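For the sake of transparency, this paper describes our internal protein records without simplification. Because each token names a local backbone shape, the row as a whole describes the fold. One such record is reproduced below, unchanged from the form in which we store it.
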Amino acid sequence: MNPSAENPLPHPLSARRRAGLLLHPTSLPGEGESGDLGESAHRFVDVLAGCGMTVWQMLPLGPTHSDRSPYQCLSAHAGNPRLISRRRLEEWGWLGSGLSSAEHDWLGLAQAGFIRAAGESGWQALEDFRREQAFWLEDYALYQALRQEHDGAPWWQWPQPLRDRDAEALAQARERLGTRLARVHFEQFVFFRQWQDLRQHAARQGILLFGDVPIFVAHDSADVWTCRRCFSLGEDGQPLTVAGVPPDFFSATGQRWGNPLFRWEVMQADGFRWWIERMRTQLRMFDLLRIDHFRGFESYWEIPAQETTAVNGHWVAAPGEALFRALNDEFGALPLVVEDLGAITDEVRALRRKLSLPGMNVLQFAFDGSPDNSHLPHRHDANSVVYTGTHDNDTTLGWYDVLPADARTYVMDYLGMPGDPMPWALIRAALASVSALAMLPMQDVLGLGASGRMNTPGTTTGNWQWRFSWDQFDDRTASRLRHLVRLYGRLAGGLQRP
């Protein structure tokens, strides 16, 4: 049952200090091309619990394009079929054992197995899922079927009647592509069944699942094709303006993300229904949500679509307060953390405070030499989440290794010349912080260097591919982590916040 405005649930960070690990499921061990929601995911929950931690944070779980970026998904609602566990399908009796992981259509074989073995209860479960998720599933399935029919071409390159969602053309497509539509429905049914199994296991172990909601969606996505009026597009479906950020720490020319910008006046006119439905999906999946690029809800960097970099953009005001008030009216108090990094102004800080939402502190950003740097532990407040680094940073060891000698000396001096080497010195500092939640990237706990980096902002190759193996996480590491979690009052069932 969703919380209501009359009976809001308390924020998950309001009761006590917590600690957790940041790891995307694709980085889990396994025999396939990426991690999945099967055995290793359930084992990772057990590892968290064994270390006294209570939070598993991950990146967006939507179906990705070929670059595998979870921040440019094909849908804001759907799950990524690559995360479906083949072994779980075997256990359910829908798929024969012994298939090679290179078997390209084992999901098709599983669908056939489901048709043979599901029985009345299985078919009823599928129909219930289709009915409950129809508000996004029908359009997403048609989008995926048409995309396949057109050899993966984006929706704006489809024949005009399909591109522009002519009612007759769509009806004919549904008739023509019925088999493919059923396949997409089945894939999503399986994904969410496996996800709910994982979530229930996490709940039994006292683990909160912490998701991630990108502010923008991909141009080539079911969301933009379905609601073109909501986005800054021309009649041909091409963006008029696109999203990004100005030049910053990560890039001298800024970042041109390329996502079409919202037509906020359109969204606001119908009470932000698009955002409400998007948030409804995420609240059904997660206990805690990070809102990516919160800065863009106060004002966003608008780049003319013809520009090749982000340099010639400008800031445009956004109705962030009105949006979050509408979400609060719909759902009650929201379990949100906001990513308030980058070019943060007094207005952005004021909006976060007005909404009483926890922000982020990243220790890798703390050591610029200024004692007033807000990321330094002595500047933290309890209503925040502290990270050693994020998926967009180098690993802590990789970061530290390339610092100039005087900068390394400054870091260690600030930390009190700890006996711990990096990255454990920074891990200890994060866990000791007054921030309500301390999140540690798995790469840091494993002590990995730059080879473990997940993503380099502003680049499009070599990202989102890192995975770990179970033999990297030994009993000594688990014991060390549990000791520090206990020492700093973050152990499951530990110190309560005042």
Remarks:
- The CA atoms of residues 328 and 334 lie 7 Å apart.
- Residues 1-7 have pLDDT under 50 and may be disordered.
